[in-house]
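Attaching the record inline, Q. Sequence:
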Amino acid sequence: MLRSFFLGVAAIAVILPPALGAPAAAAAPPAIPAADPAFDRVWARTDQLVSAQNVTRSWFWGGYPFARLDEPFAGTATGTRTVEYYDKSRMEINDPQGDRNSPWFVTNGLLVKELISGVVATGPEQTTIQAPSTQPVVGDWTPQNHAPSYAALGNVASLAGSGNRAPNRVGSHVAETLDAAGQVGTSPLLASAPGTRLGTYVAASGHNIPDIFWSYMNAQGPYLDGRDLRTGPLVNWVYTMGYPITEPYWVRARVGTSDRDVLIQAFERRILSYTPANAPAWQVEMGNAGRHYYDWRYGATRPGQLAPPAVAVRIVAPTAHIDTRIIPTYIDHGAWQVADYAAGWLYGTPQPGQPGNSVFAGHNNWHGEVFRYLEFMQIGDAFTIYTSDNVAHHYQVTEMYKVPEQGVDRAQQVANARYVNNTPDERVTLITCWPYTTYTHRLIVIGHPVP
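Structure, as predicted:
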């Protein structure tokens, strides 16, 4: 059956001069810095579950980091800091020797503020200046899109001092509009849209937040704490958003071939948008400030580009009659989940092709019984795991074990849990219950890469 299995005390590492007279050779692009697991941990808290379609909600960061690089930043030991760009924002590590348990070890760039002002932070007190971004804050970058640009938001943003601060208007509804030139108008009809009541006033920056955004910023739901599945507040809104720097405004945005009414509000770090015409789970979304900022700052040079990470998507084992999809599973109330109608990849173990122990579990007598015939595999049998980058990873069975699980003491459970521990070598571990009718044991099948 294998509905879940005991974790024990096993710790799984979450594994990431030219010749005279000759034309000068083009400078090699800077090396992409090594991945820091702290970035992935912040991303995974909210967006791993979105990526795996375990939850239906909009992205807080985006599907994966599309660039990683060392940006100039005064005051650090190297004069740089490592950053990762996501569609919605940028993560930064200012002090790699700092407290990794601090929620501020990874910070979240003030990108929207910089896009509007044109002032790029290159240190705690250092800046460079470039023209504010002319990218529309929402919708497509086409002549048909009449949404305001970041530069146009400069007409209504409170970037310094008390300029453009708003009075407390809690209880009223958002009727204000903003055109492509940053000129304010009104539309009482739009004020009737659900959620447009101004319910919160942030005195620190002098702006009102509508209920629809405030609910999103304070939403609760499933999230990941390392490998553990929990439920609670998804984000700290000040950390994620920063303070609001404009009032909310209705804009007319072109998305694809259609024009839509979209409510937007700029915060120091993010743009929030509300599109009533969208499906409910996608009505409130983060704008693509990370992507917009990267394009604005780097243009055609595009340093540090990353490919999407490869993840296991399918396992085929002919002698065990296995051909099934793979989905991530997590620790829930101290035990690993087991996927229904699929093989489950134990989140946090390495992906196939990486050093370490990639662990997969599946039911043997219910909910798809995808590992029903795993017991018939033998030493030397072959199996293949396919990853999302269209690579086939071939393995050969090298070890098989049947270990008692039902009614055993904690010492035996802990001993069994060692099979999900990480290893220095690349291997795959497949786990199910055994035998078919009583499932008193765990069946462990270990494979190593085919040379």
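The chain has seven helices and 27 strands. Residues 56-298 form one domain.

More tomorrow.
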